[in-house]
Structures are given as structure tokens and as C-alpha cells.
Amino acid sequence: MKERTIIDVSNTIPTRELLWDSIGFLPKIFLKRWGKCVGLSDEEISKLHALNAEEISEMFMKKCENRKDLSIEGMIQQLDEAGVHLTAIHNLDEETSTGMKPVPNEYIAEVMSKFPDYFIGFMGADPYKGAAAVKEIERGYRELALRAVVTRPYVNRVYANDRCYYPIYAKCEELGIPLWVHCTMNWDSSQPMDNGRPIYLDKVATHFPNLKIIAGHGGWPWVNEMVGLLWRHKNVYADISGHRFRYLAMPGSGWEMFFHYGNTVLQDKILFGSDWITLAIPIKKMLQEFNEIPLEENVKEKWLWGNARKLFALN
Prior knowledge:
Elements: E1 6-8, H1 16-24, H2 28-38, H3 42-47, H4 53-64, H5 72-82, E2 84-90, H6 95-98, H7 105-114, E3 119-124, H8 131-142, E4 148-151, H9 153-156, H10 166-175, E5 179-182, H11 199-207, E6 213-216, H12 223-232, E7 236-239, H13 245-248, H14 256-262, E8 270-271, H15 276-279, H16 283-290, H17 297-311
């Protein structure tokens, strides 16, 4: 077992409850990859595009049920082998927009109680639930030991600076807990792809200067804009989850400025995030790719665990 030092701020766990939503609403471009991962035949994969979200989820779940490597225990074994100290469990509440009831936050707390040394609990927040969402954040923090909130503006079909989010932002700022925001393009062609542009977090960071904001997925393809946001606001951070690390540092990838400044003046603002389960790539392989990124060794340590430890006030 490797020494466990890495902190992953963007992930979930491979259980039926939490993967149901993720699999059902996977962008179509990921279906083939996920199909191969869980063992679907080529014929089954070819039929996926004609199915609805519930049917896709059910097909995948049946394949996953007896896979040890797609269980929490199998996940923990992989975390130990890769040297991951803590990994996020992202929960979601997007019921108003999707019609899907959220997984209760008690479920996340129960998993954390069974495996107390492996997870950081993130709770979802539906901006259309108003005072009820704010009350749930308070309860999740004080009673269930959850330590961050997740929002995905593209699913809510608004921008991150929409006033419907402001009560959520205010409560996170009051409690001193980070807010993880989907900040990259989305693959839902029925709506504008710029819901995840970093620029929409600029006004949020200005109005809530003590709100700890994690721009999930690093703002690609608006990477230069992301760099400006990180440099401009002391309370904004970014993770690099949801991308194959081996491509990020390639010339022409669009990430050049991110890594140039992330290696220097912004080295304290970048967090490690993987989404390795969603990408269907073992965390050990993702870390091998990360280690090939041309960063100073002390900067890699900050990205991998040092910055997250400070942000979440971890011992």
C-alpha cells in the first residue's frame, strides 16, 4: 500500500444510488466507453442511443451489480494502491430541473461513517427550493458532517451568477464551506454550452468575497478566462477533473496558460480532481498521467493535496 497523501475533490462512489443519475444522464459520447467498462456487448452498446435515461441506467446497473471493482470496497482498494488519502463523494439535488429525486444526504453520511478515513461528503443544492435548500445545507453541515456543496448550472439551465443561487452562496459563505461549481462546456446540445464559462463566477466572487469557490473541470475551453478569474479573486480555486491528464500539457491543447501560471503565481489555487469513475479510467492510471505533467515537484504536491488540505481545513 502506498502512503496516502492525495486528495481528490471531484468524484463519486460506484453504488447504484449515486451512479443512477450519473449514468442515466451521461453525455452520449461517453456511452461507448462506459459500456465497454461494465462489459456490455457491441450489440448492447449500439442500442444505447435509442434508450431513455432510466433504461440506460438500468442496463448499466445490472452489469455493475456483481462487479467487485465497481463496489465501494473495490474502490477503496484502488484508492489504497494509488495513494489517495481522501476522495469526494459528490451528491446532487437537481430535482426541479430533472424530475429525479435526490439521494438523501443521510446516505452520504452513512457511507462516511462506514469508511471514515476515505471520504469528504459533498451535498447537492437545488436553487429552486429556496429556503428549504438553505436549511438542508445547514443540516448537512451541522448534523451530517458534510463539508461542501455541489451545483451544476447547466443542469439548472441558468448561469452561475443567477440570483436563484444567492441564498445557497450566502449560506456556504456563512458556514465557511466550499462550493463546487461545474465550470466547463456541457454536452447537452439543447442549451447554450457557455453555462459553464468562468466569467459567470466573476460577479459571484465579487458579491461573496469570502465564499470558497471551486471551479470544477478547470473552465475548459475558456482556460485563459479561468486563469484571469483565479488571479483576480483570492477566493476562487479550480480543479482539473473530467479530463485525460495526458492531453492537458500537449501543445495546442488550450491549457498552456493554465499550466504556465499554475506552476508559478497560481500554484496555490489549483486542486486535484479526477472524476475517474465517470471517465471509466482507473485512478492509478490517471495519477500516472498526472505525474507526467511538467510541473515543479513542490507544485505537484500542492495540487495533489496541499491546497485542498488548507481549503478544507484538514489535519
